[in-house]
Amino acid sequence: xxxxxxxxxxxxxxxxxxxxxxxxxxxxxxxxxxxxxxxxxxxxxxxxxxxxxxxxxxxxxxxxxxxxxxxxxxxxxxxxxxxxxxxxxxxxxxxxxxxxxxxxxxxxxxxxxxxxxxxxxxxxxxxxxxxxxxxxxxxxxxxxxxxxxxxxxxxxxxxxxxxxxxxxxxxxxxxxxxxxxxxxxxxxxxxxxxxxxxxxxxxxxxxxxxxxxxxxxxxxxxxxxxxxxxxxxxxxxxxx
Length: 240
Fold this sequence. Notes:
Blueprint: H1 3-17, H2 21-50, H3 58-71, E1 76-81, E2 87-94, E3 97-104, E4 121-128, E5 131-141, H4 146-160, H5 164-171, H6 178-184, H7 187-191, E6 195-197, E7 203-204, H8 217-225, H9 230-239
Antiparallel strand pairs: 1-2, 2-3, 4-5, 5-6, 5-7
Helix pairs in contact: 1-2, 8-9
């Protein structure tokens, strides 16, 4: 059962467990918030394992800190370079827990000695329920399942509209649609969740219409001997 299925089940059973709709709503919101937080922590830890900063310039470190602060909105975030200067130490203090990790610093063109082979990306086309024939051509990492990728994409979208860029778009009266999200979300926000955007614009689903069947020599001879069989029509179509 994935997170979306669990929340749907919770929403169904809560009214049966308590007659107070406000209490049921608070319980649902708290559980949904905890699930989002767990997914965010999981993505952050994966990024610290596989990602890196290009340098320790103050602007680079501050931008990274701002990104974490946006994702962990209720946390106190500290990002400090290590003594060796080969990484930054990250501390995220939440009301009920503290998360500590390190992120490597790898200048452009260099690779870490302990870099592992990264997982390949595989196709992840996405369509909305109200327009299933319009596809956004995305990709997911091979080690991220379709259900998990869908949850990650939803989380990235929710977080994007709370960022400075997302809020600026809303101030400019840009609609909070999936299409605008895909067109404007930074590529890095998708990549760190194991996703990739190939194109910003969707493509209509194309049905491939095949031409008449091309018969083999044996099929041709059989069709000539038995003109009543379906293959005889194929011969006539090829000779028109």
